[in-house]
Write a structure and sequence with these properties.
The structure holds two protein chains of two kinds. Chain A is built from nine helices and one strand. Chain A is an all-alpha fold. Chain A has one domain: Methane Monooxygenase Hydroxylase, Chain G, domain 1 (Up-down Bundle), CATH 1.20.58. In chain A, helix 2 runs antiparallel to helix 6. The relative contact order of chain A is 0.15. Chain B is mostly helical. In chain B, helix 4 crosses helix 5, helix 5 packs parallel to helix 14 and helix 7 packs antiparallel against helix 12. The chains are: A mainly alpha, B mainly alpha. The interface between A and B is large, with 29 and 49 residues.
Chain lengths: ~220, ~400
Amino acid sequence: MRNVIAKLFHKSPFEALHNHMIKVKECSDLLKPLIESFITGDRKLIDEQVKAISNLEHKADIIKKNIREHLPYHLFMSINRADILRFLHEEDAIADSAEDVAKLIEMRETKVPSGLKEDLAELVNKVLETVDSLKRTTSNIKLLSQSSFAKKEEEKISSLIQNIDKKEFESDVIQQKAAKDLFLLEKKIDPVSILLLMKIMKELGSVADHAQNTGSQLRCIIAR
Amino acid sequence: MLKNPLFIMAIAVGLCMAINIGANDVANAMGTSVGARSLSLRKAIILAAIFSFSGALLLGSYVTETISKGVIDSTYFVDRQSFFIYGMIAVLLGSSIWVTIATYLRLPVSTTHSVVGALIGFGLIGGVGVGGINWGVVVNIVLSWVFSPIIGAFVSYSLFVVVKKRILDVSSPLKSLKKDGPFLMSTVLFILSVSFIGGCFKRLSNNFTLFYSIGISLGIAIIGGVVVHFFLKGYSLNKNDEYEKVENFSKILQVLSASYVAFALGSNDVANAVGPVAAIISVLKNHEVSRQVCLPSWILAFGGLGLAVGISIWGYRVMETIGKKITEVTPTRGFVAEFSAASVVLVCSRLGMPVSTTHVIVGAVIGIGMARGVEALNLRVIRNIVFSWLFTLPMTAGLTMIVCKILITIL
């Protein structure tokens, strides 16, 4: 049976992209309970949560591979193929960084000094807020294509992207403050703990960084 | 004549070809309606059958004349009537066989192109030589194959840009739909009824056709516009699902354009099956091979019936597959694609150019893609279409020559 028309329409990658975002969000959202148990020092809980994060990161990876495999060169899309792939790469990096945070926490039994507990909790909240505003932005892509890239929808996404930038900036500020607080305690803690805590905070910050980069990539997509 | 085995054979192979056309071309043309969920499969089949039949009957004559007298000069066969009849049967058989093979191989061949190739094959074996074939007509036809998808793309691109500018890319799509929806509906209804009623008058009498059909069509268009105006008034201005409301309205437009596409298709494609049959009957009846073949309505009706049968028995499956596979197309896009394709096919058909409906609709969909209306299109299909252009002529020509040789040896 010949079916030119059925063949002509290629499956849109938008739905899969949305599914990828959902998985990435699920994965990074687990950072909050993980940091909480890191603060209380519950090793058993930490092990479980790290495993769950790894698992979700792997699932996001599978979706990513699937999208890549189904975007051959001869596709003609409303969004540039390279832009989609770069977007996907950055979005996936969010989950990768979340997993790195988890690995760092699991790697060594590090005690969180009481002066840093509040900072850490605040930092993870702001980082997750950044990811959340990214998710709210990407869920508008469907509208963008429904309206065939109407200016109204583009502007809406644009302002949502600015919101991501704002959140990322705020998380940077918190991260800087946390680092300062950590070095205030440098006499009381062993150097290895300091090294590890620094690394954890930096990696948490890159979760927000990647969320911001994903948003910027979306900006390129709109600005075609 | 009715007991003549050649007559029965001609009717049989003509029917076979018509069924093939109905199954493939019609199903392809209306597939986006099923894909966009504007029409259920069953309704799509019924509409397709009714409108392709009426299209064949009312507007079918234009292309049929071109096919039977254009490609080969039939006066070469004045002294060889029976050979001419075998040849025409071979033309139908050869193209039917090729369409069936291509269907099996999933090559998007055009039934129109197949018949033209078969006629060339017949011309070559019939001893008219290369010079006996009217290459000017062939070149025209080949050009129209290349240009018809491009024109289809251009028309649908323009139409979609208008729809986008007026309805989608505004601060409130629903508000502009309320304003522009009636005009859009009127325009669609007007074009549809002009072609439909114009065809009716053409069959009945030759006087005042244009005047009457435009008058009646205007009336229908105005009534339709007013009805739509009041219908749209009932839509509440809820901010959340404006695009969906627009798409919902487009479903009505798409049902209309699907009927239009089936109508255009019937008028365009019936010639492929019926042209050679008409030529055979004319020879059997008048015992001479003439340049012009008169096409009685019953032959067109018979062709239309074949189309309808093809749609119901095999087009069902084609449409089902298309409908399941393309879920990304929305009613606005489907409407634009089908409406543009049908308009291009009808105009080409009036001008006597046998174009492939399937290829025009592929062009129309790509046109919408160029306006960023579709998320992802697989352009490899174009490569397949070009292959089918390259293969169809030599394959059907060759097949027809073989079939013709066999027929002459047997009979």
